[in-house]
Design a protein that fits this description.
This protein is of the alpha/beta class. About 35% of the residues lie in helices and about 15% in strands.
Length: about 350
């Protein structure tokens, strides 16, 4: 991909039939779920087409996935991009990050255990902790009594990128209180300059489980491919003791797409980041007082009172995520996905202006 026009080719409603736009009415702009409106990187499309035309039998890596292309591409990328020397043999594939989180919590905690996580937080993670009978602690200044810390970095929904000193402070607490840290780093490739992502495992390798995938940076949510890199030896041993097929794993198309993304699609990602950077700055220009995120493509907007997602969809025809779903601290917020064309984003901002003029927004 050579220029941003190829990324930014959508005008008004994009030709998408996925979940993001399927639930939006004919006059509603979908800005809620974290999918981009941009075309898939051609390198990924070509890789999937080659696989479809080729061998769709059992992949050679299925018997030993830790030595397969997914683990190798992950380790290569971590070293080249972040200077972290990840161990491929400590990698296990999963269908998505939510499954990986549930498996890791199952292996490292028990019902009634306390799990710390910054709030507001990604709703499926909140749901996982509740469904598994774990207790949630959102005050991470004191991790005493906790069994695990779920660290989302870069953070969803705020877009914060934790600094190295902040991560070191969390690592010291994890050591002091004998915690496992489950680090969701799925937005790592979406950090805006001059920011830089620091893998938590590069600070505290023996206690860190890293969860990631190419789905957010390369817009591949439907390919169902994620992985866990398990630093703690006791976690690897616990997983080996489980029945072989209990947790499933990635499929051949998911692996093909992920490897193509991590090895061949960085040009597409750079172009996409240029568009996203422009979009976050456009929001800041149009919404006084708004501070753009340091990573990702989600604007976390404080609209002053609860229930504004419903109001915006009904009155302004903008479909956003209700901040209340993100737990403590999110009640008066909405999350707006700005990974779209300039034309669509401009229309969204115009609608917000009209809603404010009509007295719907404070």
């Amino acid at each position: 991909m050579g220029d941003t026009d190829q990324v930014d080719e959508t005008i008004r409603r994009p030709p998408k039939d996925g979940l993001k736009w399927a639930g939006a009415g004919p006059d509603v702009i979908a800005c809620w779920i974290a999918d981009m409106d941009f075309p898939t990187a051609p390198e990924i499309v070509e890789a999937l087409q080659r696989r479809a035309r080729g061998d769709l039998g059992y992949p050679a890596w299925a018997a030993e996935p830790q030595s397969g292309p997914l683990a190798e591409a992950f380790a290569e990328r971590m070293l080249a991009t972040y200077g972290w020397d990840a161990e491929p043999s400590w990698v296990r594939s999963f269908s998505d990050l939510n499954q990986a989180l549930q498996v890791m919590l199952h292996l490292t905690t028990g019902p009634g255990d306390t799990v710390a996580m910054h709030a507001p937080a990604y709703p499926p993670f909140l749901g996982t902790i509740a469904e598994m009978g774990r207790r949630l602690r959102t005050d991470v200044s004191d991790l005493s009594g906790c069994r695990a810390l779920v660290l989302v970095n870069p953070h969803n929904p705020t877009g914060k990128v934790f600094s190295r000193p902040e991560l070191v402070a969390l690592a010291e607490q994890a050591e002091r209180h004998d915690l496992v840290v489950i680090a969701d780093e799925v937005h790592a490739d979406l950090v805006y300059a001059p920011g830089r992502h620091t893998p938590f495992a590069s600070i505290l390798p023996e206690r860190t489980i890293t969860l990631t995938s190419a789905t957010k940076a390369f817009n591949l949510g439907g390919v169902r491919c994620a992985l866990a890199h398990m630093g703690p030896p006791q976690v690897r041993e616990a997983l080996r003791a489980q029945p072989s097929f209990l947790y499933g794993g990635a499929n051949v198309f998911g692996v093909e797409a992920t490897v193509a993304a991590w090895r061949h699609a960085d040009g597409w990602l750079r172009d996409t980041m240029t568009v996203l950077d422009r979009n976050r700055r456009l929001i800041a220009e149009r919404l006084p007082g708004y501070v753009p995120p340091e990573a990702a493509y989600l604007a976390w907007l404080d609209l002053g009172r609860p229930g504004m997602a419903e109001v915006l969809e009904r009155e302004a025809k903008i479909m956003v995520s209700d901040g209340a779903a993100f737990g403590p601290g999110g009640e008066s917020f909405v999350r707006l996905n700005f990974a779209t064309s300039e034309a669509i984003l401009t229309e969204v901002l115009d609608r917000l202006d009209r809603a404010r003029s009509a007295g719907l927004l404070r």
